[in-house]
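tool=predict chain=A
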Amino acid sequence: MTTNSIPRSPLAAQHREQLTSPTNLPAGNRHPVLVLLAPPRPTSVPAVLLAAARILQTNGLWQDDFIPDPFDRKLTTPHTSRPMSIVAAIRCAVAGDPHRETQLADTAIGYVALSLDDKPAWPDMFSLRAHVDNWGDAEGRSTDEAVALLERLATTSERAA
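tool=predict ok
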């Protein structure tokens, strides 16, 4: 043993390990820690449509824009808990944000647009989004109608089989 080394007791190492354990509180007490895991994101168009239907059912359908007060001038609630349009609900179901564009969300929006009775004027993504928004913004359109549309489109292949 050299003169520079200080012998450490096994209790000191055990105490240091307990302090750094993820289930310890700052006081050193051991308590179980609740870990909330986010639900898995949908990976198919039918799953996206069902998730969007649940979001609309919970938050409500918003007409005129993606969400009310998108620049947070009056509202302080998170964007994901506000009423939203069908396009915003689909985006939120895929990415967790009603403003974030993803390939899967665009595919689901295109599927909804092409499944409506009247077809969009142009096949580009902007026109498809506008077509779905126009359907949702129709006067008198209710949340229940939007939810029913998304659920019907999500289960079309199951009913056909």
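The chain has a mean pLDDT of 83. The radius of gyration is 25 Å.
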